[in-house]
Amino acid sequence: MTYKKLGTTISETVIYAKIDDDGVSRSSCSENNPEFQAWLAEGNEPLPADEPEE
Amino acid sequence: MSTIKVNRIENTSTTDGGVSIDTDGHVTIDGQQLPTAGPLSNRNLIINGAMTVSQRSTSNAGQTATAYRACDRFQTGIDSLGTWTVSQAASAPAGFSKSLKMECTTANASPSAGSFAAIFYTIEAQDLQLLNYGTANAEVVQLSFWVRSNKTGSASFAVRQRDNSDKLFSKVYNFNSTADTWKKIEIEIPADTAGVINDDNGQGLTLAWWLNSGSNFTGGGATTGWEALDNTKRNPTNAGIGGTVNDYFEITGVQLEIGSKATPFEHESYGQTLAKCQRYYFRINGSDNINGLWGTGFAYSSDQAVISVPTPVTLRAAPTAIEQSGTAADYRILESGNTVTCTAVPAYGDDTTNNVVVAAFSTGNLTAGQGVMGRWNTGGNGYLAWSVEL
Prior knowledge:
Chain A is an alpha+beta fold. Chain A is 15% helix and 35% strand. Chain A contains 1 helix and 3 strands. Chain A has one helix at 34-41; strands spanning 2-8, 14-19, 25-30. Chain A has a 3-stranded antiparallel β-sheet, with no helix packed on it. In chain A, a hairpin with a 5-residue loop joins strand 2 and strand 3. Chain B is mainly β. Chain B is 2% helix and 43% strand. Chain B is built from 1 helix and 25 strands. In chain B, the strands form 4 sheets. In chain B, strands 5, 6, 7, 8, 9, 10, 11, 12, 13, 14 and 15 form an 11-stranded antiparallel β-sheet that branches. A 7-stranded antiparallel β-sheet of chain B has the order 21-20-24-17-18-23-22, with no helix packed on it. The radius of gyration of chain B is 24 Å and the shape is globular. Strand 3 (25-30) of chain A pairs antiparallel with strand 19 (321-324) of chain B.
């Protein structure tokens, strides 16, 4: 399982997609999500957001 | 004023029923215990104690980790102790129709020290202020529930209170003398005059029904009342459920109430229980409304719409995550009479306790500023869910 940055909400909250081991994202969260925060505290780093297409 | 001193009042032609008064003055009418303290209604501090609401799913196979599965509000705790199917089962004692069932599909006969299998239930702190914990007026509490298992013998129940201290009460109970038979259990939880429960929306008490564990949680004996947390006293007598494939544990009729006597289970309608559960988790399903609409909003850009969904009740806290099916095509966006299929799965928006927001994506298919509606696709496989469990 990992997280990938998706972008920001209208109020500029950063959001992340949670990517399960099978590569599918079944949830996303804000940067304030406790589960995401705990994952960061374990030393993990989220994947960067996709580059916008030209 | 006169006083009539009597132990029983009954009809001259009967040998049971009537009114009984025990030596503590507690009254039973026709075999039904009356409350000894607290309100006459809304007595049960447990939500979904009859296991009637199961928003997430009715059966989940292959469970190996702690999570909320099947019956709402009851969390199944699993850590390195086998594989389980967690379900809302149709088996139940008379007067009930559902139970929460944990059935082992891959056993672990020799659990490692830190492993466990249990059922947890956490009560919101502000709902426990009537207990007066931390004062001289602290109340005794009665827990009652029905259990059934293929195993017989004793198991452990524990309560943990983390505000201002980390305290534990644990009790060993005989959960079954006959296999595969429902048995009603009653456990008295003593008053805690020292442990203040904060008046907030955080964790108040966490109840734990232990099925099995490694040595970290057993061996210390049961507590003699409320004590400082000692992990070895959390599961003082290990039932060992999950040591063999097909071991199971079913529970229903869970009631926690103040007073020195347990009273009959306080049933309520499905709608009442569902609304209470939705404070902690709510889910909308495409299968309930195939091809229907799930929210209203506007196109933020040509790629993204922002769609609002009112919450059914005020949530315990503002959600910080959204759950969905994992398939973008389960979701569509209706704009000016034209419905387009989503090109990415819906994502978290800016949520509050009364309204949640979904970011829906359909690259290049929207007109910025247009009003839109979220729409399920015809397969009915989509869902959206928000959890603010304790």
